[in-house]
Design goal:
- The chain has 430 residues and is α/β, with parallel strands linked by helices.
- Helix 5 crosses helix 10 and helix 10 runs antiparallel to helix 13.
- The relative contact order is 0.11.
- The strands form two sheets. Strands 3-2-1-4-5-7-6 form a seven-stranded mixed sheet, with helices on both faces.
- The chain has two domains: 306 residues, Vaccinia Virus protein VP39 (Rossmann fold); 101 residues, Transcription Regulator spoIIAA, CATH 3.30.750.
Length: 430
């Protein structure tokens, strides 16, 4: 870990990590890229002090690691190729993770804008900038994908069409979060023009077909290990939403995902993976029979390219006014921590709330936390994770007041009822 980052007075690494555990998947991916032989992945791994491949330790089976490396290299090389052939020369990578994509694309003459959680950007950006041949063509921005203002601010100086790439993100989101992300991407395309490319809708299918084509009957066991590792690293239970295809009902789930995009004024082109598959370094670890079976299997997979549907007279149903800026006020008296939250509680703001709670708990025992949510506009999975953490770590639990209908719906969908009627409540009176 970068010592400057760890010791920063205004950045609580521990709170960021617990609020956004999905950041661990970025480090797993670059370990797998190094295993596959992707250029510069080993340099990044060394700079991250991950030469021991610690993120892969939970994958104890060599076939599971190899299968994941095949999928990761396939996604990386195919996405780079599709971006290069998109016709747009500014890549907006959301999330950018810890991959060598910035190095690869800027060598090809592209401008690269990497967007990710603060915990990723603050550690990864200095590494890439230190080894890049063209650092002036690279920009990193701290964002929350559900927060339009953070995305808009990151692109404030861009005056040309963009190619937005999202890889390995959307399966970790709930339906309301996916809906927000798609709306945000459409609004960015409306302003800048360009396209959006992602492998995410068919990623479960790609995993299933990759493992089955390479490992045959043992693929089910290896896939179960992969799913378990991803769930533990991200703190997500099922890696499923209406944008991720159900491999047991592909036809209906394709229609569901396409209708979701259409509801946001986007049209989709499904690009056949096998027809756009670059040569992979990981083939050196496979037999000729495995390579053929893999290539044949990828005929059934597609990556999705979205653009604005100009044929629609689309009316955005998302409120266009600016969200209230995040603000937190609190008092602590007689064992009760009272907070008032304003704006959005997401990946960017939620760690501040957890840090405040833990700071007060160190100085005195907190019996109960009462939060006035009358001006809380939105809460993401990161915010809900913080609420659960607070509830578990004070004697009388957490009470939320004046919660609006949209936030209440998100809370109930995320299992807030698990607290039980005697341990938590939504109240109208503070």
């Amino acid at each position: 870990m970068n010592e400057e980052l760890k010791m920063s007075n205004d950045f609580n690494y521990s709170a960021q990590a617990r609020t956004n555990p999905v950041f661990q998947t970025a480090k797993t991916a670059v370990c797998l890229m190094a295993r596959a032989g992707i250029p510069d992945a080993d340099k990044i791994l060394h700079c991250l002090k991950l030469d021991d491949n610690q993120p892969l330790k939970s994958m104890t089976d060599s076939d599971t690691i190899l299968g994941n490396a095949i999928v990761v290299e396939t996604k990386y090389r195919t996405m780079c190729s599709l971006i290069e052939n998109s016709g747009y020369h500014t890549c907006v990578d959301l999330p950018c993770g810890c991959t060598p994509k910035a190095l690869h694309l800027t060598e090809k003459g592209f401008r690269f804008i990497g967007m990710d959680l603060p915990i990723i950007v603050r550690e990864f950006a200095p590494i890439i900038n230190s080894i890049a041949t063209h650092p002036n063509a690279i920009t990193f921005c701290e964002v929350d994908a559900t927060n339009y203002e953070s995305l808009e601010q990151a692109l404030r100086d861009i005056d040309e069409p963009i190619c937005i790439s999202t890889e390995g993100m959307l399966m970790y989101f709930s339906d309301d979060e996916v809906d927000a992300v798609i709306s945000n991407i459409r609004r960015l395309l409306e302003i800048h023009g360009g396209c959006w490319i992602t492998p995410d809708p068919e990623i479960k299918l790609q995993f299933m077909l990759t493992f089955h084509s390479v490992f045959g009957e043992s693929s089910v066991r290896n896939l179960e290990k992969t799913g378990s590792t991803a769930s533990k690293q991200s703190d997500v239970a099922n890696l499923f939403n209406s944008f991720i295809l159900n491999v047991e009902n592909l036809s209906d789930s394709i229609k569901t995902a396409e209708n979701l995009l259409r509801s946001h004024g986007l049209k989709v082109e499904r690009i056949n993976l096998a027809e756009n598959l670059p040569e992979l370094s990981v083939y050196r670890q496979l037999t000729s029979a495995q390579i053929k079976q893999f290539k044949d299997a990828m005929q059934q997979c597609h990556y999705w390219l979205m653009t604005l549907d100009e044929s629609q007279n689309f009316q955005d149903n998302v409120t266009v006014q600016k969200n209230l800026p995040f603000e937190m006020k609190y008092t602590f008296e007689n064992g009760v921590l009272q907070m008032t939250l304003r704006g959005r509680m997401d990946s960017i703001s939620a760690p501040n709330i957890l840090t405040t709670f833990e700071k007060e708990k160190l100085s005195d025992n907190i019996d109960e936390v009462k939060i006035d949510c009358s001006e809380l506009e939105y809460i993401s999975s990161a915010g809900i994770r913080v609420f659960f953490d607070i509830h578990k770590n004070c004697n009388k639990g957490l009470v939320l007041f004046n919660v609006n209908l949209s936030v209440t719906k998100i809370l109930l969908n995320k299992g807030f009822t698990e607290f039980g009627v005697n341990k938590w409540k939504l109240s109208k009176n503070f």
